[in-house]
Amino acid sequence: MASYRTSFAVELLTNAGGTVIDVATVFVLFQAAARIGEFTLAEALMMTGLTSAGFVLADMTVGNIDDLKRYVRTGTLDAVLVRPLGVLPQLVCMDLPVRKLLRLIVGIGVLVVAVGMNDIDWTPARVLLLVISPLTAAVFFGAIFVISASLAFWWVESGEVGSAFTYGGRDFASYPITVYGGWFRAVFAYTLGFAFVAYQPALAILDRPDPLGLPAWAGYMSPLVAPAAATVAWLVWRAGVRHYRSTGS
Q1: How many whole angstroms separate alpha carbon 106 and alpha carbon 123?
Q2: What is the pLDDT of residues 24-72, one digit of tens each?
Q3: Whole-prediction pTM value?
Q4: How does DSSP classify residue 213?
Q5: What sign has the CA pseudo-torsion 102, 108, 110, 116?
Q6: Which residues make Cβ contacts (< 8 Å) with residue 117, sequence separation at least 6?
Q7: What is the C-alpha separation between 243 and 237, in angstroms, rounded?
Q8: 40-53 b/e with 16+ CB inside 10 Å = b?
Q9: Are 87 and 239 in contact (CB under 8 A)?
Q10: What is the secondary structure of 142-174 as a DSSP string?
């Protein structure tokens, strides 16, 4: 990829540009009001930073699984299945997404800026949560990538549906969930677990009471929610691989 230097540089910049635009929308939104969903810009940016860092890390590591629908449609998956290696690791390693490296740097940079903008009373528990939260967010988003990609085993043209939960989930988690309506918030934030990507950890780090009434310890639930999501993804993936019957070509 690096042998075509201009193309590689353009890919690096355009990939980073996507994350920059996502973050810029938060600043634009707060131009209309000093507080949105009972949160200030600095507090909301903490949620955005945790989400951005976690999502980009997941996208770099397992984002290639999005191509599963193409492998199923073209029959490429058949060649993967006959090799004496795990199917999922092979698909993940088919492409080394170095072009997304700058996105990761931007995402971590947003989190660093957010930490600097907030007056945080640091404790060992909050420092540990700040370090762990992007990693647990990456595990959670990685699980969503795998689950949404696995739909291709039953429905090849499932790409847009999957994107609603991967990229749509990223956008959902980038804002305080108090801005969303009741049933929508209940489904995505707590039934599907997106509240534990950034919103609840950010409240715990900032020592901020939850306007929705959840106790303070809810912010420390992310390390439990992420493995649960990964377990569901593993079960769905196994069911999909067993269901697969080749293209017949």
Answers
A1: 26
A2: 888 888 888 888 888 999 999 999 999 999 998 998 888 888 888 888 8
A3: 0.88
A4: -
A5: negative
A6: 41, 42, 45
A7: 10
A8: ebbbbbbbbbbbbb
A9: no
A10: HHHHHHHHHGGGT-TT-HHHHHHHHHHHHHHHT
